[in-house]
Amino acid sequence: MGVAVVIILVVLGTVVFHFMSPWWWTPIASNWGFVDDTIIITFWVTGVVFIAVGLFLAYCVLRFRAREGRTAEYEPENHKLETWLTVGTAVGVAAMLAPGLFVWHQFVTVPEDAYEIEVVGQQWGWAYRFPGADGKLGASDVRKITDDNPFGLLETDPAGQDDVLVDDVDLHMPIDKPVKVLLRSIDVLHNFYVPQFRAKMDMVPGSVTFFWLTPTRTGTFDILCFELCGVGHYAMRGQVTVASEETFQAWLGEYQTFAESLADARRDDDGSGSEPKLAARDGATESAPSGPAR
User: Is 142 exposed, middle or buried (0-12, 13-18, 19+ CB in 10 A)?
Assistant: First the structure.
């Protein structure tokens, strides 16, 4: 009797905690509301099964408890029960998988007019690259990474000369515009994640992965690395600001192109011999990182 009561209390407590829990998703700021819907469907399917199994277990403990004069009966097969369990399990699994497959198809189908940006992860920080006036990102090669070329861009590729380089934790995106986020790591596994965007993807050294989104709400949101990447993983953070197209373009105009950064680096090497800089066009400078090159 006591065991059955405990099982029922566990089921009821779990349901109450689910609906009254203070821990829930952050307010969404992208087009990926389908991700929330899919998770909610999974909660409903697994929740109903959890309640049904828990209450059935409590019923069995109470109904078939040991009593004097009662013996157990061994029944190795029950075709009717097996059929119901097989059909019920198949329906439940299909209810969870079908929405996920639908959302995944949307997740990997990038709109043709999506604006491409590149995110580069390194222990333990972020850097970003944007296409220039030609609207194309130049080719890159991890073997070309140096202090003067922290993104590893190919100097022989004309498409990369006007790429805008942002070696900073701060990222900006325009609102209501599809963005394809290309992900590249130059050391170990990382994962670029903004909780409000509901979209993330592993960054695999030697590969370029991607996801896409359309920011739908202005504001500043935290960027997290969602893959354990070493002792500094906890500090691999940043911020993304979603703003109007005009504000985004004004922010982007503060940073150098690849050609400009190379020219500055060569002048420094030929002149004072000081550390290479990644400078904003308004004259502000920032020292290149002393650790491994980005």
Answer: middle
> CA dist 157 to 28, 80, 124, 255, Å?
38, 68, 28, 20
Residue 110, judged by CB atoms within 10 A of its CB (0-12, 13-18, 19+), counts as: middle
- Per residue in 223-252, pLDDT tens? 999 989 889 999 899 999 999 999 999 999
Residue 257, domain member (yes or no): yes
**Tokens for 93?**
């699994």
Query: Quick one: 224 and 96 in the same domain?
Result: no
**171 and 281 assigned to the same domain:** yes
DSSP E strands in 66-208: the ranges are 115-122, 125-130, 164-166, 170-174, 179-185, 190-194, 199-203
Tokens of 231: 């002792």
Angle at 41 between CA 39 and CA 42, to 5 degrees: 65
Whether 143 and 244 map to the same domain: the answer is yes
Query: 163 with 29, same domain?
Result: no
Domain count, the chain: 2
CA distance 92 to 7: 23
Which tens digits make up the pLDDT trace of 20-53?
Answer: 888 888 899 999 988 888 888 888 888 998 999 9
Q: Is residue 161 part of a domain?
A: yes
Residue 161: phi, psi to the nearest 5? Answer: -65, -35
* Residue 215 three-state SS: strand
Whether 160 contacts 95, CB under 8 Å:
no
Q: Which domain holds residue 43?
A: 2-63+79-108
Looking at residue 28, its pLDDT comes to 92
